[in-house]
Amino acid sequence: MARMNMIQALNSAMDVMLARDESTVIIGEDVGYFGGVFRCTDGLQRKHGEHRVLDAPIAEGGIVGSAIGMAVNGLRPIAEIQFADYIYPGYDQIVSEVARLRYRTAGDFYAPLTIRTPCGGGIRGGQTHSQSPEAIFAHVSGLKVVMPSNPFDAKGLLISAIEDDDPVIFFEPKRIYNGPFDGDPDKPAVPWTTHEKGEVPEDYYSLPIGRANIVRGGDDLTIVTYGTMVHVAEAAAERVGADAEIIDIRTMAPLDVGTIVTSVRKTGHCIVVHEATGFSGFGAEIVATVQQECFYHLEAPITRVCGWDTPYPHAFEWEYFPGQKRVAAAIRDVLEAA
């Protein structure tokens, strides 16, 4: 075991897979010589060679298209898109080609492709470096969509994504790459040192895609969340003193419906928290599922706490985030409504 932040855990996952499977390759802008804009691939080209870790031009459509070709022809490519905001030039190839490949060929072809990309805000990157587009991809049949919230999950889930025979979109919340909430004016009263680095095995291990994690048990309220907002939800529950069960879904597609439903039927209350805008955000799918499966167990309306329904507001970044004050207020409202 070693103490790692999320960047180090992701680097370790790719290092392990490059050494373990000669079909694993990495392609992206600055992933080789420079080690990635966030240093997630630092040192991997020097260790494994230029033929395994390939620097690509600034052409996201070309990166995705090349990676699809590699995957169809027997490799297991890891394509890095520097920011999720720039994934859209490759969107048509992801949605119209690789997501449908296994189905349209009746299983004759498949594409073990992993697309890694940093998402969300928190680095004052403005409108073009801060988007959270996970709902757009979770909507597409044939894609698996993953977003870890801590170093241990990041490594285990990334290894599973690389080994998966179908395409996986792997979102990485850059706000917690090095540990959450530096400079956050709504900083929680509890220390965050336990989240900055975690115990991570240095060798191979994997975690199943499609299985949620109950990060905090409770009987009065269920909070369903993922990514950065897992830490916000923990701080808010601590602030209020609520006996909240916090579920980190970890993967949007496939969604672990069973864990969510079991929890809500127990607590009778549900809050959904995510950083992306509320309208048509992934939280709406969770709310619809809970409403359908748990209606007669609910003691109060389901509540969402999300980003604003606006373009990403650079000047009001911290107000846009669902901070612990907003989540704490939602917890009080839901419990008092019972």
Task: Tell me briefly what this model is.
With 338 residues, the protein is α/β, with parallel strands linked by helices. The protein is built from 13 helices and 14 strands. The chain has two domains: 2-176, Thiamin diphosphate (ThDP)-binding fold, Pyr/PP domains (Rossmann fold, 3-Layer(aba) Sandwich); 210-336, Rossmann fold (3-Layer(aba) Sandwich).
If you had to describe this structure to a student in words, what would you say it looks like?
- The protein is an alpha/beta fold and 338 residues long.
- The chain is built from 13 helices and 14 strands.
* Main β-sheet, spatial strand arrangement: 3-2-4-5-7-6-12
Give the overall form.
Answer: globular
Bin the strand percentage: 15-25%
| Radius of gyration (Å) | 19 Å
> Number of helical segments?
13
Low-pLDDT residue spans: 187-195
> What is the CATH C-level name of the largest domain?
Alpha Beta
The pLDDT mean sits at 93
Q: Considering the protein shown, what is the CATH homologous superfamily of the largest domain?
A: Thiamin diphosphate (ThDP)-binding fold, Pyr/PP domains
> Could you give a short account of the major beta sheet?
7 strands, mixed
The counted number of beta strands is 14
Total number of domains: 2
End-to-end C-alpha gap: 45 Å
The CATH topology annotation of the largest domain reads as Rossmann fold
Give the ordered list of helices and strands. Answer: EHEHEHEHHEHEHEHEEEHEEHEHEHH
CATH architecture of the largest domain: 3-Layer(aba) Sandwich
Helical content stands at 25-40%
Quickly give the structural class.
Answer: alpha/beta
